[in-house]
Design a protein that fits this description.
By secondary structure, the protein is of the alpha/beta class. It contains 14 helices and 15 strands. Helix 1 packs across helix 14, helix 3 runs antiparallel to helix 7 and helix 4 runs parallel beside helix 7. The longest helix has 16 residues.
């Protein structure tokens, strides 16, 4: 039996409330800059005060100009394919262009049939469908014929495959808030098994409609009541005053490829993915379980032939919901045992909010940045930790040597995921 191939990250792209590319995103992480405030009414409706980390002032065509170093033909295809697409598709195109550029795939291409695409998320067009409903009710005959293509999640796959000329495997994966990690795991597995040499993992922003916002509110999952007048304090992962998640809008993309391919193309390796596990609770509800989250982390470690003592840092799911935070800490304590006091913990959601289906890929980029730059970003609003035994990062970034990191994502319906990133032997600054 052939030995599984090593899988590395060679490109990243991020568009978020705290940075429109990885450079700005990295600076914001180090500075502990929060993107949470009041959402524009045109972006989303929230009965609790329009609190969230919104992707404001987003313009697709001007956004293409920052990638002027890419081939003109590629940028022309991007504009032609996506200029009339919904916001979710456009955000994924821009973050994918950055990842493509960093991976130098325009200089040292991989054969089109040896590249795949995995898009993170399902039900990706809720806001788009909601906005078209009123137009349809008034004049159904004037509904855009493009709607018949855009409402499918596969529109993301088709658009990205045409822009980047990708002809290997391609699909979307739904895992609720664990969709990002699920997409990374499926890309990782495809490369390890030899199905493709490289994979573009794209996580479009989740653009909620008023119905989803109200649904989350009625479920009691959203925060914002107690900090309406101080929105920057509303997202409080692992703090005793946490009350629910704060919605965030971000898109992120990764280029994964085999180590052999990266070596052949002579491109920098940003990080290695050495393990990833997805396990189910057998539970259709929104409540998380210690057993499922523990099993995800333990199976990821076992897959990589690692022990808890090898872990230096965990980027937690850390949603700022009381049940979710408390369950995750209990699971982490079960996994780490005597290593608990040594391992750094934080939540990127304290800065960018909960980006739902794209969260896992956004947070994977944050993990790689911190690993390579040697710091742990702040966990904002952690005034009264729910647990005194854990090594949480506080209000300021701290220097840290991170050789191995876990990144957790857990989704409604009992979906538990954990991905393990390893620091490469050689590195360069992302700044």
């Amino acid at each position: 039996m052939n030995k599984p191939r090593s899988v590395v990250v060679t490109g990243m792209g991020v568009i978020s409330a705290i940075g429109r590319d990885t450079h700005e995103f990295a600076r914001a992480l180090r500075e502990g800059r929060s993107g949470i405030g009041y959402l524009a009414q045109s972006s989303a409706y929230c009965p609790l005060g329009y609190i969230g980390a919104g992707l404001s002032d987003f313009c697709f065509v001007p956004g293409l100009r920052q990638y002027s170093g890419l081939p003109a033909g590629l940028l022309q295809r991007a504009e032609q394919c996506a200029r009339r697409s919904p916001l979710m598709v456009q955000s994924a195109v821009l973050s994918s262009l950055e990842a493509w550029q960093q991976a130098r795939l325009y200089e040292q291409p991989i054969p089109t049939r040896q590249m795949g695409i995995v898009v993170a998320g399902s039900n990706l067009t809720q806001r788009y469908q909601y906005d078209n409903r009123q137009k349809f009710q008034e004049s159904p005959e004037y509904l855009s014929p493009w709607y018949a293509l855009h409402f499918f999640d596969t529109d993301h796959v088709g658009t990205l495959s045409e822009i980047f000329s990708i002809q290997g495997e391609g699909f979307t994966v739904g895992g609720a808030s664990a969709s990002g990690n699920t997409a990374i795991i499926k890309g990782f597995q495809a490369i390890r098994s030899g199905l493709v040499e490289a994979c573009l993992v794209a996580a479009p922003m989740t653009d909620l409609s008023p119905m989803e916002m109200q649904g989350f509110s009625n479920l009691g999952a959203m925060g914002g009541k107690n900090y309406y007048h101080e929105p920057g304090k509303a997202c409080r992962p692992f703090d005793k005053d946490h009350e629910g998640f704060i919605y965030g809008q971000s898109s992120a993309s990764l280029v994964l490829e085999s180590r052999e391919s990266a070596k052949k193309r002579e491109v920098e390796v940003l990080a290695e993915i050495v393990g990833g596990a997805l396990v189910l609770d057998g539970n259709r509800l929104a409540d998380s379980t210690v057993e499922g989250e523990t099993r995800a982390m333990e199976e990821a470690l076992a897959q990589a032939h690692l022990q808890p003592g090898h872990v230096d840092y965990i980027n937690t799911h850390g949603t700022s919901t009381p049940l979710g935070d408390e369950t995750e800490i209990r699971a982490i304590k079960k996994v780490l045992k005597n290593d608990l006091e040594r391992v750094w913990l934080n939540s990127t959601k304290s800065l960018v909010g909960h980006c739902l289906s794209s969260a896992g890929v956004v947070e994977a980029a944050a993990v790689v940045i911190q690993m390579r730059e040697g710091f742990v970003h702040p966990n904002l609003n952690l005034d009264n930790p729910i647990d005194g035994d854990c090594r949480f990062c506080g209000p300021r970034a701290v220097p840290a040597k991170i050789n191995l990191a876990l990144s957790n994502s857990f989704g409604f319906g009992g979906i538990n995921t954990s991905v393990i990133f390893k620091k490469p032997v050689h590195q360069y600054s992302i700044h």
